[in-house]
Amino acid sequence: MSAKHEIESRLRAIGAPKDGEFTKHESLTSQWDKSLKKFSDQIEQYYIENRQINGVQYEMKAVVPFGSSASGLGMTGGDLDMIVCVHPPLGKKAGRLVKRRCNDILEVIFKKIQCGDMLKTRKLEEMEHIDGARVPIITGKVDGVDLDISISMTYTVSAQYLASKFIDAYEKYDRRFILLAAFVKAWQKSKKTDQNEDYFRTVFPNSCSTVLLVVFFMKHYKLLPNINKKHWAELSDARATWPRVRQGENGSFGIPRQYLANWNTCDVSVGTLFFLFIDFYANIMDFKNYRMVIEDGSLRRKGKRRTHRVVIEDVIDSDNPAKSVTEEGMFVNWLKKAITIVKSTEAEGIFDELMKDKLRDIMSYTKQEVNELRQRGLHAAPWPPVKRY
């Protein structure tokens, strides 16, 4: 079944938009595109006005931008993650030794920051070495920007390095991917406050997981290919070995555009895609019983060992990036709220309406209110709630 047929079939199940004037034989895709045109324009405008960089390519030497700043998903006000890649690596199986060595390196960096040998011309606030975290980090603010410094000791440069190449490849196949991913991240982030930060992490997927949810959704509707299979020579972890790094391997731009000449896709607006995205994860996806395999966009039943409530199997990293989401019922509830907003709000007001409400912190609920949430399938954690989730 083609992407066009898949999308039209789902919109037929949802129904036509209530507003607008449409011709008798006009497809539902076209009707929703027209209905949500102003919303689509706002999504694109948001991306243009808020992205951190424009069209910059980097050569890999000592310091290499990667992640959202290199992939195009970095938005104004975002934080900065700095990863120090250490060679020779110890690998993931070294466990405690890796953590101890990471903390030893971070302790040296932290002392140099404190005494002014590093970042001496910068304004520093709340700098802290968190050595007891699952992934030890140095955290704080540098010139008003939130900064996290961590250590990577893998045989490839880092999973984040490879992720930038995959994101760049997806964007080359379909620019709507980058627009949709950036907006979904912004919509989720709008629910966060200083008070609900811990609870927020249990309800909404982190940045990496959110991007992967967009990838999976677009593969489900056949809007993105299995690039791991199509472009293994350009995107495999063999492209991120230390010898290649020393030779100047480029970390952000994986596949030439000429490879995309024969790629066919469906003409559907980014506003309609957002609507289909929230519908997919609110009404189609069964988080309880299925895991999402990013490589081919397939759903497979969870095995007995898969105890996480939301399971994403990434191509790059075997660790489940969505394991922090333990309140997927509340996540789905927010998706359904967004569906109601898209259906009932004039197109020019959808963007602002989606950004309005904040996630209420679970610590502010009474025991009775939490029990009511639990009865509705919106809360899974035990009572009383602990401070950190």
TrEMBL record:
GO terms classed as biological process: RNA 3'-end processing
Source species, domain of life: Eukaryota
InterPro entries for the chain: MTPAP-like_central (IPR054708), NT_sf (IPR043519)
A Pfam match: MTPAP-like_central
Gene Ontology terms for molecular function: RNA uridylyltransferase activity
SUPFAM superfamilies: Nucleotidyltransferase (SSF81301), PAP/OAS1 substrate-binding domain (SSF81631)
Segments forming domain Poly(A) RNA polymerase mitochondrial-like central palm: 58-158
PANTHER family, per the entry: PAP-ASSOCIATED DOMAIN-CONTAINING PROTEIN, POLY A POLYMERASE CID PAP -RELATED
Protein name, as recorded: Poly(A) RNA polymerase mitochondrial-like central palm domain-containing protein
Organism of provenance: Caenorhabditis brenneri
